[in-house]
Specification:
This protein is mostly helical. The chain is built from 13 helices and four strands.
Length: 332
């Protein structure tokens, strides 16, 4: 009888987590549909994407980092900086066609710098990205401590552009154009991780950095690359959030980094690295979104969303650990 390798065990844990997460999402939707009026309409599903498009993009970037065994807690601050800085530049009269590439480049550069520091100086990712979090949030306050409205025509068009359908019940279902950007990022990330040398190298580094070096992989390029990708996704998430709110505010999305991490973990990405998918991370985002929807229908305090997500996250971590312990016992 062959014993499972550590990688096979990790994949099993991830698959079980993703299966549970997918089942949980369906059960929550069906339960909500049976209890609340209009919950079961297609508009509810579409609104999950409309309201969480920016978080899907951030969670995709976070998945790349987690797959290498790293972590980045600066993404919320990068997102907020993107919104505030964009609003400030647009207010000064700069065109959106110049502002958007600029903020995306800044986000990518911040991620690259953090990845470079982590690999070159062998500093714990938590400490480097904590410094990045303080830096970017501080820069937000330097730019403005009050909300800056966005009146740029392009941003307004991007914010309001949508495809609508008339429902048989008389209502309207709509999907905003910026959701397609989030889905495009998701599909590109899925392809990169599944079908490219860089994607395979990301999984290899996360499984065992030392083994990846023996295999001749450029570990430095991979580790810096995933943080640069994450920085780009955080900035792009900031652009999409600016479309969503048409404003920039220095205190936006406090704690969003935990939402992104929990989405990835709920979707089957292991914090130890090497196993996970961006599709699973999207499922994690949708679970958080449907919890928020149920809380809204119940007229409860929005903090109940955080409480519920925390409980679900603890459940998934416990399940992953139980499976790992059983696998270790069988191996022994």
């Amino acid at each position: 009888m062959r014993t499972k390798t550590p990688l096979q065990t990790k994949i099993k844990i991830s698959n079980i987590s993703l299966l549970i997460a997918g089942t949980m999402l369906v059960v929550m939707y069906l339960a909500g549909s049976s209890v609340y009026d209009r919950f079961g309409q297609i508009s509810t599903v579409l609104n999950l994407f409309n309201d969480n498009a920016y978080l899907i993009v951030v969670a995709v970037g976070m998945t790349f980092v987690l797959l290498t065994g790293g972590i980045d807690i600066s993404v919320a601050s990068t997102l907020a900086f993107t919104g505030v800085f964009s609003a400030s530049l647009l207010e000064k009269g700069l065109p959106a066609i110049a502002v958007i590439p600029l903020v995306l480049a800044i986000g990518t550069l911040v991620g690259y710098a953090q990845g470079y520091a982590i690999h070159t100086f062998q500093i714990a990712p938590f400490l480097v990205t904590l410094a990045g979090q303080f830096l970017m949030r501080g820069m937000c306050a330097v730019i403005s401590t009050v909300s800056i409205p966005i009146n740029d025509p392009f941003f307004k068009a991007a914010a309001l552009g949508k495809i609508s359908w008339k429902l048989s019940s008389g209502g309207t279902a709509k999907l905003y154009h910026y959701v397609y950007v989030a889905l495009a990022v998701l599909l590109v990330a899925w392809y990169v991780l599944r079908s490219t040398r860089f994607g395979r190298a990301v999984y290899a580094v996360g499984s065992s950095e030392q083994s990846a070096q023996y295999m001749g992989l450029n570990v430095k390029r991979v580790k810096i690359g995933v943080y640069a990708i994450n920085g780009f996704c955080a900035a792009l998430g900031g652009v999409l959030f600016s479309f969503y709110t048409l404003a920039g505010y220095s205190l936006q999305n406090m704690g969003l980094e935990l939402d992104a991490i929990s989405s990835a973990v709920i979707g089957g990405t292991l914090l130890t690295g090497g196993v996970g998918t961006v599709i699973g991370s999207m499922v994690g985002v949708l679970i958080q979104g449907i919890i928020q929807t149920i809380v809204t229908y119940q007229n409860l305090n929005t903090w109940w969303t955080k409480v519920t997500v925390a409980a679900i996250l603890c459940f998934f971590i416990l399940v992953q650990r139980i499976i790992a312990i059983r696998a270790e016992r069988k191996k022994a």
